[in-house]
Recover the amino acids of this structure.
């Protein structure tokens, strides 16, 4: 059961309805899912979250399917059933096959297992892995 009510459009404050309308326009659908309907109880939170999500999930160096698959992986790690379901549906709509989904879950499971082992055994990081990350778009060695 949701902590906050799932608001129908006519129950949303005006500011939240504006965000819901932007969700519909951006996604080219009439469907606004329960996550946004719950966030509509706090229009400022809803707007901030939507603006951030549009930026992160919008066009970039990673293609939309890869972004959705990363979202699934993080959602599995965080045990967010809602997020797993919604982003799996989105990834499937973007072309994720059942084979890709199965492989993704295998990678997530393996990463979880080896992460726990490395943490439990307190394995020190190899010097070769301690290189400082390069700045984006900088030539190698800078």
């Amino acid at each position: 059961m949701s902590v906050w009510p799932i608001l129908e459009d006519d129950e949303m404050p005006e500011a939240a309805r504006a965000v819901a309308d932007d969700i519909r326009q951006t996604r080219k659908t009439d469907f606004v899912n329960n996550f946004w309907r719950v966030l509509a109880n706090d229009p400022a939170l809803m707007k901030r979250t939507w603006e951030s999500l549009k930026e992160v999930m919008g066009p970039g160096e990673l293609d939309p399917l890869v972004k959705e698959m990363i979202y699934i992986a993080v959602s599995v790690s965080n045990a967010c059933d809602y997020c797993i379901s919604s982003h799996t549906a989105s990834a499937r709509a973007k072309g994720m096959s059942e084979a890709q989904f199965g492989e993704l879950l295998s990678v997530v499971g393996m990463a979880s297992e080896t992460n726990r082992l490395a943490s439990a055994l307190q394995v020190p990081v190899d010097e070769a892995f301690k290189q400082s990350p390069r700045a984006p778009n900088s030539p190698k060695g800078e």
Notes: The chain has six helices and no strands. The chain has two domains: 1-58, 61-122. The chain has a mean pLDDT of 94. The CA atoms of residues 16 and 43 lie 5 Å apart.
